[in-house]
Amino acid sequence: MTRKLAANSAGLRNSGVLLLFALGLPAWAANPPAADLKLAAELAEHGDPAGAAVEFRRLALGADGARARAAFYWASAFAYTQTGQAELSDKMLDRAEDADPALGPPALLLRAENAARLAKWSEAGFYEQAVLDGAVTGDARRLAARRLAAAHLRRHDLPAARTALEKAGADTPASQALDQYARGRDKSPRLGGWLGVVPGLGYFYAGEPANGLRSLLLNGLFIFGLVNTAQHDEWGAFAVIGFFEITWYTGSIYGGVDASHRYNRSRLDACLGSLSGSFAPDFKQLPAISLRYQF
Amino acid sequence: MPAGPTRYAACAMRRIVVHCLLLCAGALSAGAQLELAAGLCAEGQWRAGRREAQRVLTADPQQPLARLLTATAGLRLGQQDPALLAALQQLADGAAPVEISARAAYELGRVRWRQGDATNACVLLQRAFRTTQATDLFLRSGCALRLLADDFPELGERDPALLQALQTCAPLWTPEIRRECRPVAAPAKTRITATPAAWIVALYRRQIRPALGSRCALTPSCSEYFLEAGRQHGLLAFPLAADRLIREPSVVQAQEHPVQTGAQTRYADPLAEHDGWLKGAKK
């Protein structure tokens, strides 16, 4: 999902920096083993998040200060999220929050992302709401609001999505995308399936005329073959053609349903693309967690 | 990553690591290193766990937990290196704290069982069963012994008292434990309705594809898609495959999600994108 969001983003507009742990770190935390940290950061930035996650865990285990430990566990969790291991990432976040219960928005944003990766939209929404209920401002708030709106939209709750967006103030592109989504209409998969009884019509209904035409031609050809073989009492050929025709015919019905679902999904994806946003830490700043936001 | 073995390994490794950390008091970095190695193995990240354990072994080649983790990870990664088995044997024979020995005996017992050496497997699993203080290892070694005795009834006849003890523990073995303790996984059952799909694909692959060549522009290929649909949805594979064939030119034209396979560019069109609603409806 993150890749899709990033692909749809208009580019790096802002690089708001959230420094949460700049003060009060113990002496070790201020000077973690430089080579280890550099290695972990480079692995994370050069396409080996799995390796980076282990290095960050090593740094966390060696850290003296609770805040530094929390920051390294958080970085490890971020790296695990990048590898798609959302459950492991949550486990690292548990450790980070055990070390520093006041970790706050970075942990919540990451938990929300993990929940979204596991398609747990309610849970993702809960964490984004928690970010919005806190004292965050600027891009962090905007990102949380967009993602909360996206979570509501996934559950087809358009009014809640609008309310969520309003919490971050004016966000014209996102609001326009929601308006456009609200103006459109979903296709009914049930109707698509029924229309598919007439070969190809289900595809036409879902806006896929080329597929509809192919289905119509194939079914027409095979039905012609059936009729022709029956007229000439060629029952062996009739059985073979009949087998294929049943496949094409049921395929037309299935296609009508699936094409409607596909239409609805692409409409939703287009709207979600406009609600996109992502965040990434500046690993070199660790053990201070510094996030960059991208919309 | 299977949840059962992971949870089990997490408990066992945590317990073992506490023992070892106590042994390693005064050597914080090695302790932390071991904790990391044990944690990674417990999460099923065997390759990374083994690397970390080996890092400890470079400083202390006799470190028992690191040796156990290295050997266990090697086995889980499919290695049957005699050196690994020798290390496990040495640990199981008592060259380590009791829990580590018990764990090594359990792992080695499973290897021997897989190799068909039921007598040695029985001895090792019994040792793990009788010496461990850890509930999870106690349950698993007991369950493994029971399954072994089912496969080789003569072993059970030798020690009726042990069989009685295992019978007492049996209610505590969850289906997850039973599944995990059998070293060779039972083959997955195939739907009877998936068989026609498999026949058709086999016929196509043997008789037709060699003449046509591999022409499908999508990945997975249409025959693979059909087989997978058959495995998951039985006879519904036929309409699914027909829908796929009708859509294929449109998917290629759209050129979304290209995947480079060798010299050819194919377009990703996985089954999951077309049966998600079907699975939702079944639930």
Note down, in words, how this protein is organized.
The complex is a heterodimer of chains A (295) and B (283). With 295 residues, chain A is mainly α. Chain A has helices at residues 2-8, 27-30, 34-45, 49-62, 66-82, 86-99, 105-117, 121-133, 138-154, 158-166, 172-183, 189-195, 201-205, 209-231, 235-274; strands at residues 278-281, 291-294. Chain A has a two-stranded antiparallel ribbon. The longest helix of chain A is centred in the C-terminal third of the chain and has 40 residues, at 235-274. The radius of gyration of chain A is 26 Å and the shape is elongated. The model of chain A is unreliable at 1-30 (pLDDT under 50). Chain B is mainly α and 283 residues long. Chain B contains 15 helices and 3 strands. The longest helix of chain B has 21 residues, at 3-23.
List keywords for this structure.
heterodimer, A: 295 residues, mainly alpha, Serine Threonine Protein Phosphatase 5, Tetratricopeptide repeat, two-stranded antiparallel sheet, 2 strands, elongated, disordered N terminus, B: 283 residues, 2 domains, three-stranded mixed sheet, 15 helices, 4% strand
Shape of chain B: elongated
| Poorly predicted spans of chain B | 1-7, 17-28
Helix count of chain B? 15
Order of strands, main sheet of chain B, comes to 1-3-2
